[in-house]
Protein: Acyl-coenzyme A thioesterase THEM4
Organism: Nocardioides panzhihuensis
Amino acid sequence: MTALQQRIGPHPDGAHLPAHHEQCLGCGVDNPHGHHLSVHREGDLVVATHVFDDRHVGAPGIAHGGAVATVLDDLYGFLLYLVGEPAVTRQLVVEYLAPVLIGTTYRLEARVDRREGRKLFVNAKVTALDGRTAATSTAVFVTVDAEHFTQARPSSAI
Ligand SMILES: CCCCCCCCCCCCCCCC(=O)SCCNC(=O)CCNC(=O)[C@H](O)C(C)(C)COP(=O)(O)OP(=O)(O)OC[C@H]1O[C@@H](n2cnc3c(N)ncnc32)[C@H](O)[C@@H]1OP(=O)(O)O
């Protein structure tokens, strides 16, 4: 079994899910520019509690929209542990409903809506602890084989 297959799982309900790799911008613990997302499984959901910090600011005090999209994209990447196959983002849509505030705790959750062949239709939301939804998202991921990741330079391949 390859390291990638081991990481893919299966992972039981409630389990903390492993980072995609140590340098991943979304979840890698060794990326100093990263978001260091920590994600667990809740049934069919993948869930993170997240605080954007000063590295992610757009307008003063408000998270940059690209940073929010980055975190959502990476969160979707954790659904692949539930699906059991690698996949990559083909389309990412974000609705910014309210400012996502720096230094404020948010709950992020994502799920697979449906699958059609290689296409995974997924959705997510970002919710403040008072229950207000700050952002919603949909995306299309397409499953790929392990060779997809060998296109990168050897030093950065996973
Ligand atoms: C498991 C855990 C692993 C963990 C261990 C780490 C490994 C996993 C790391 C992941 C880490 C995550 C991190 C965050 C997620 C990224 O950031 S992923 C990085 C960003 N994304 C990319 O780089 C992807 C770049 N794009 C590509 O490589 C290629 O376009 C793709 C996505 C592989 C697809 O290419 P292709 O295989 O040639 O497929 P193509 O025929 O174009 O389309 C496939 C199907 O999708 C359909 N389609 C295309 N676009 C659309 C659309 N917008 N809407 C609906 N359908 C569409 C097509 O019509 C087609 O449908 P069918 O004809 O099959 O019915």
